[in-house]
């Protein structure tokens, strides 16, 4: 019996000794590997640091040791993610993983600790610092004109914070400059969610949709913007451009006519209304607005050019009717029309064409359209004088 008790005591002492030795060994390995990791990070050898930290996974760590291991992993990945080479197209996927891992490990500390604890405060501060560094680097690349690199850093920052309007705005612009219009739309969606709904966002979204061959959605964005910012000049013209390219002339008029009411002496708008009415086949209203534009700006070349060309077209239309008068006089629309009245109207338009085309020509003698219109009107009027009467030149023999 005494021998058995002695054996039990020896075994018990061996267990205690091994436990103490193992604990000391684990603690020693923990400190050694953490120290090596810290040193490697300071030397900017983050991959070496991560290798040391991987070894720690097989060791039983203290609570403090585990938290430090998390923070050193996050720090290593954050340094790798901010490397300028990360913005290259060949490494962007790997570097995005660096950012995701940085967020993951800092978030792990935040979830494993209380807001009053030091590790929590440290992780929160470091995550904010990492975000600021991404924005700073992205802005620096943007200023240098390295839009692709800037776009990378802004994109990484959004993985951390999707509600910062400044970064979202930068990201949207960078995506636009790289012609990634779908990504730019995604960023603008986030901007609208945080109530950053400035006029520029609606203008940009209209541009993105049109670039993506979706003009209906583009004009919807214009309407949304004008609902919030009525009669906004630049947004009206963004919509007007879409309407003209899509031949939605009536829609274009609905956008620009309220602008004319507010700014009745805006020559650019007056000219555009004239062109819209001309496209809709309403020459009288078109000439009215061209005339208004001329009254506002008597030296505006395109006003004289447009109205002279339109007047010449109207004169030629009447001439065509007169030249085919035998058949046209049988039609209901000409039943009560006198041929001489048509000739007078044609001459009236030719005279106006001559005067306005001459003015356009004098404003710019190098303008071929002005010269051609002026020449054609002059030629027809000279022919009318040679034949003593314009009616004789238009008479069908």
Descriptive account of the structure:
This protein is an all-alpha fold. The protein has 19 helices and no strands. The chain has helices at 2-42, 46-56, 63-81, 92-112, 118-144, 147-160, 165-177, 181-193, 199-211, 215-228, 233-246, 249-262, 267-279, 283-296, 301-323, 325-328, 339-363, 368-386, 390-394. Mean pLDDT is 86; it is low at 7-25.
Major sheet summary line:
none
How many individual helices?
19
Q: By helix and strand content, what is the structural category?
A: mainly alpha
Order of helices and strands: HHHHHHHHHHHHHHHHHHH
The fraction of residues in strands falls at under 5%
**How would you sum up the global shape?**
rod-shaped
Rounded average pLDDT? 86
Q: Over all CA atoms, what is the radius of gyration?
A: 39 Å
Number of strands: 0
Keywords: TPR repeat
InterPro entries: TPR-like_helical_dom_sf, TPR_rpt
TPR repeats: 267-300
What are the main properties of this structure?
mainly alpha
Quick overview:
Keywords: TPR repeat. This protein is an all-alpha fold and 397 residues long.
Chart the SSEs and their pairings.
Blueprint: H1 2-42, H2 46-56, H3 63-81, H4 92-112, H5 118-144, H6 147-160, H7 165-177, H8 181-193, H9 199-211, H10 215-228, H11 233-246, H12 249-262, H13 267-279, H14 283-296, H15 301-323, H16 325-328, H17 339-363, H18 368-386, H19 390-394
Helix pairs in contact: 1-2, 1-3, 2-3, 3-4, 3-5, 4-5, 4-6, 5-6, 6-7, 7-8, 8-9, 9-10, 9-11, 10-11, 11-12, 12-13, 13-14, 14-15, 15-17, 15-18, 17-18
């Amino acid at each position: 019996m005494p021998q058995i008790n002695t054996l039990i005591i020896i075994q018990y002492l061996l267990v205690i000794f091994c436990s103490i030795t193992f604990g000391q060994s684990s603690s020693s390995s923990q400190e050694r590997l953490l120290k090596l990791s810290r040193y490697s990070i300071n030397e900017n050898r983050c991959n070496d640091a991560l290798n040391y930290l991987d070894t720690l996974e097989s060791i039983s760590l203290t609570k403090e040791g585990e938290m430090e291991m998390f923070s050193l992993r996050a720090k290593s990945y954050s340094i790798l993610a901010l490397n300028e080479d990360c913005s290259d197209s060949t490494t962007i996927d790997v570097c995005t993983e660096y950012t995701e891992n940085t967020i993951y490990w800092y978030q792990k500390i935040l979830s494993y600790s209380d807001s009053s604890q030091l590790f929590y405060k440290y992780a929160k501060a470091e995550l904010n610092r990492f975000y600021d560094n991404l924005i700073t680097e992205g802005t620096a690349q943007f200023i240098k004109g390295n839009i692709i690199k800037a776009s990378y850093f802004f994109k990484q920052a959004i993985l951390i914070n999707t509600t910062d309007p400044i970064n979202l705005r930068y990201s949207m612009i960078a995506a636009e400059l790289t012609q990634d219009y779908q990504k730019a739309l995604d960023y603008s969606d986030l901007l609208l969610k945080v109530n950053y709904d400035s006029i520029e966002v609606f203008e940009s979204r209209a541009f993105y949709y049109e670039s993506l061959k979706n003009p209906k959605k583009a004009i919807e964005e214009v309407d949304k913007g004008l609902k919030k910012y009525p009669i906004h000049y630049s947004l009206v013209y963004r919509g007007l451009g879409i309407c003209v390219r899509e031949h939605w002339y009536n829609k274009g008029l609905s956008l620009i006519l309220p602008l004319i009411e507010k700014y009745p002496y805006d020559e650019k708008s007056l000219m555009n209304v004239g062109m819209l009415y001309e496209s809709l086949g309403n020459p009288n209203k078109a000439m009215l607005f061209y005339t208004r534009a001329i009254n506002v700006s008597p030296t505006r070349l395109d006003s004289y050019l447009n109205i002279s060309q339109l007047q010449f077209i109207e004169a030629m239309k009447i001439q065509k009717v007169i030249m085919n008068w035998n058949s046209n006089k049988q039609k209901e629309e000409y039943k009560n029309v006198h041929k001489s009245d048509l000739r007078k109207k044609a001459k009236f338009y030719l005279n106006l064409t001559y005067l306005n085309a001459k003015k356009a020509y004098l404003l710019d003698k190098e303008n071929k359209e002005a010269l051609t219109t002026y020449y054609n009107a002059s030629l027809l009027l000279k022919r009318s004088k040679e034949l003593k009467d314009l009616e004789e030149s238009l008479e069908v023999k």
